[in-house]
Write a structure and sequence with these properties.
The complex is a heterodimer. By secondary structure, chain A is α+β, with helices and mostly antiparallel strands. Chain A has helices at residues 2-8, 10-29, 34-55, 62-69; strands spanning 72-74, 85-90, 103-106, 124-130. The model of chain A has no long low-confidence stretch (mean pLDDT 85). Chain B has helices at 2-71, 81-100, and strands spanning 106-119, 127-140, 145-166, 170-183, 188-195. The longest helix of chain B is centred in the N-terminal third of the chain and has 70 residues, at 2-71. The radius of gyration of chain B is 31 Å and the shape is rod-shaped. The chains are: A alpha+beta, B alpha+beta. Chains A and B meet through helix 2, helix 3 and strand 3 of A and helix 1, helix 2 and strand 5 of B.
Amino acid sequence: MLRKGILFTYDALTALALLSAGMAFLLVSTNYDPAPARYASMEAVARDYLTEKYQQEIDIKDTDVMQLTGRNVSETPPAGEPLVFYASAFDYLPLCNCTASSCTLLQGLNETCLLSQDINSSIKKEAWVTP
Amino acid sequence: MKKGFFSAALNALIIAAAVTAALFALTYAASYDASLRNLEAKKVADRAYDANYSHPRVVQDALLDAAYQYYGCSALAAGTFCSNANSTYASYLSNYTAYLNDSTINTNAAILEGYCNSTDTTAGFDWSYAYAVNTSLASNSSNAERTIVGRLSGVVDIRNYTPLIVNDTQVCSDAVLMRIAINDSARYVVDYYIDCNQTVNYTSNPCP
């Protein structure tokens, strides 16, 4: 009994319990729910697509996204998909619809853009990703 | 002694199991909440980034429109170019942030500093104005906030009524042009010609 008592005294068992609890704390403190991480990664795919296409003006297509990430991205809400991830980005309209370095406007034809702000709801770009 | 040993062992196991379960529940909930807050914070940061990204175009839009409405094809408007530019920018900025808002993220803008002054340093133009703004763009939700200060400066060059030159060689004498250009000290970011007398695009249809 004396030899068993060396290992299994009440104090030793209490220490073991505390040690187990400590290890459990370390273990569970590193746990995370994979759902938010998955959402973040899918949302990043959609947002990267929008910022590259509209803000950086890179000619990227949904087929490129499929090839690069294996995800299907669309600028219209996909119908019938049980799980869809969404992202948005904003890009101001080209002033007077001019995308060149220099433009000519004609009074009475297309100069009315100089009379009001070049903005409407289409500055909001939206994309949906299905896994 | 034997009974006491098993009792102590059982107590230890129960304590360990209870503490483990409680810690797991607490940390799981905390981790989930933290993940959601991080997602929300990223969306707010993205919105502030977007707001700042397009902000230069808001300034350019306001300066372009103010220049045309003051020096354009009609008679000079009331006030001065700078007062018109400042009020146009303030109006456009307010409208711009309204388009950035949705049900979860709100964006507010505040003009911290503004500078507009006449300068005649640009050769070949009738009027030149140095313009600078320092604007705070703040996006926030219920749990996150991100503020970016957009700083812009440039020169607005305005020239009224110059002959239209097509392909650098052909001059249409009846064309009446004005030019509005904005230089950000590196290049012309806006360079628009407005024909105040014609509705025919001479660039694609040479002079009659």
